[in-house]
Amino acid sequence: MTTTETESTERAAGVAGKSPATESDGRGDGAAGGSSGRRRRGRRAGSAGRQMHGGWLTYTILIIFTIGSLVPLVWQLIAASHSSGRLAQTPPPFWFGDRLFDNLERAWTDANLGLALLNTTFVAGTITVSTVLFATLAGFSFAKLRFRAKNVLMLLVIGTMMVPPQLTVVPLFMGAAKLEWVDQLQVVILPMMVSAFGVFFMRQYLSQALPTELIEAARMDGAHSLRVVWHVVFPVARPAMAVLGMLTFVAAWNEFFWPIIALTQRNPTVQVALTNLGRGYVPDQGVIMAGALLGTLPLLIAFVLFGKQIVGGIMHGAIKG
Amino acid sequence: MTTDHVPAAPPVSTGGAAPPGDDAKEQRRAARRSRRYQRDTKWSPYGFIAPFFVFFAAFGLFPLLYTGWSALHRVSLHNPNELEWVGFQNFTRLWQDEFFWNALGNTFTIGVISTVPQLLMALGIAHLLNYKLRGSMMFRVAMLTPYATSIAAATLVFAMLYGRDYGLINWALGLVGIDPVSWEAGSWSSQFAVSTIVIWRWTGYNALIYLAAMQAVPHDLYESASLDGASRWQQFIHVTIPSLRPTIIFTVVVSTIGATQLFGEPLLFAGSPAGGSQSQYQTLGLYMYQMGWFNFHLGRAAAIAWTMFLLLIIIGLVYWAIMRWVNRDTAGKEA
Questions:
Q1: DSSP string spanning B161-197?
Q2: One domain for residues B47 and B172
Q3: In this structure, which topology does domain A99-320 adopt according to CATH?
Q4: Where, by residue number, does the polypeptide cross the bilayer (chain B) (predicted)?
Q5: Do residue B139 and residue A50 have CB atoms under 8 angstroms apart?
Q6: What is the reported pTM?
Q7: Residue in B closest to A299 by C-alpha
Q8: How close A262 gets to chain B, by Cα (Å)?
């Protein structure tokens, strides 16, 4: 399994297609070299390419898909503004009702979403900071430093991306029960503190963005490793750290499987509270939709504000794997 | 902390032997600095990767192995730390368990009807987004918003849209004269509905990944293709798709892994871990959850988890074999 995934990931990372991967081969560092080569080509293709203007058919299809993407969200907002009595009638409502704030208030208090939002902000924030920090350190080490067993350890990192969450929850639950940590936030934070994808992502970025001479110059000045990290690596890595941070925050905010096992309605994250809503904790469709809206809103606002950066980050990350 | 290509000498070269004639104090200090430098060089790379591996060992590798160990025991949810050895009994019971085979089949069918259309549509959208467009960033952001919507929120909304009596979808079908469908109750209809949630959340994301890869395709390939008289469609088939092959393989692998773990959508579609009254859309992930946290058999849940892991390995091997076969094929053609 490990080798399979490794191969495909590195392929995705390293080779654009049949076209020759530029300087990668000689160094035996295929993924890194290839991606930098691709980036250059990507930029050129970006300006010279995209030659043809889209016709009306292109716009029509894209608009249909855009509407398809947005309709469930808009409808969620509409449904959240009606009473459950109105929602149990045909035809369904197509415009906003007057119950939005009542429903939001009930979701906030009855479904414990106020606490849930606070908890999730804290959990996702902590996970994001630690993931980005540790991924940058490990990514730097794998990209630029020399040590024994480096390649084997990197393969191990890539292999760990494949471990599904189902394979860890039983022992994690046993541990949480033993420590009496059920319903305490550290139980959902600790298992998510690092990410193999993050390490891989930062390694790919730093191996081409961080000039080796810069580290050497700092070493010549007598800087020890931590100083090098602080004064050289972090400033260079900052754009990638921001992208990884956004992706990690979205993933942590939406983390589902382990939290619904480890937490209950007494001290929920957003996803736990929404799950309980879905199980009929508050049997009112309008309130359920208001809850779903509250749980999604922070990320949607972030998307409106940083949409361009997030799109850029995903596309950027995609080129590297 | 030596860098990868190190022609440069460290501040003090090797060992503690500074040249004679220097001040003794200076010599000792240099020696100390050198030793510290060497220690730093040798151990800091491990120090930087240590946090990742410590956390991974504690919360990834150990639980993975311990899940296998638990699968060989009878463990009750009420007493999760009491293990009673039963050997492979949990696995043999799975083999005879019709719900397990049902869940396995559902995971497969839902996986296929959610992944295949999703990736095909993503490919098409990416192709369209690759044209020169007005407001292209707006399209991209809009198509990515479902990705920001959590599984829970999305499923709650879709469950309502698919409602039998008052759902928007049945109402719309009624407009064109189709009788209301009982989405949740039927086998195919419920699996279709669950799949649409997955498709809705992930199509835009995959489209962006394909788009990124498309923008990296060298422009000259298209130019020479159009000089040869290839139409847009032929260019798409003969230039774009082959250039995207690594990315396509990557997304197929990632989507497959996601599909085998499908859990939240079927759980929240009707809010029960049974996955419908006939378990008609219960997936393996959901069955494992039901077994462990509703039937209280943590040992058997662990056995299901390991079966899922084996399944992933088998799928991985199949993909690997296909990839080798495809690669050999094209390598032959190119030669």
A1: HT-TTT-HHHHHHHHTTPPPP-TTTSHHHHHHHHHHH
A2: no
A3: MetI-like fold (1.10.3720)
A4: 43-66, 108-129, 141-162, 198-217, 301-322
A5: no
A6: 0.82
A7: B148
A8: 11
User: B204 to chain A: which residues are within 8 Å by CB?
Assistant: 65, 69
Centre a 10 Å sphere on the Cβ of residue B24 and count the other Cβ atoms it contains: 8
Cα end-to-end span (Å), chain B: 44
Q: Indicate the domain borders of chain A.
A: 99-320
- pLDDT tens string A28-38: 333 333 344 44
Please, which residues 74-133 of chain A have a Cβ atom closer than 8 Å to chain B?
75-76, 79, 87-92
Task: Supply B333's token pair.
Answer: 């053609």
Helix (H, G, I), strand (E, B) or coil at A29: coil
Report, as ranges of residue numbers, the positions in chain B whose pLDDT lies below 70: 1-22, 329-335
Residue B334 domain-assigned (yes or no): no
CB-CB contact of A279 with B271 (8 Å): yes
Total domains in the fold of chain B: 2
pLDDT the model gives residue A10 = 34
What's chain A's length in residues?
321
For B227-296, give the DSSP string: HTT--HHHHIIIIIHHHTHHHHHHHHHHHHHHHHT--HHHHHHHT-TT-STT-TT--HHHHHHHHHHTS-
* Domain boundaries, position B40: 1-70
List beta partners, residue B297.
B76
Residues B51 and B179 in one domain: no
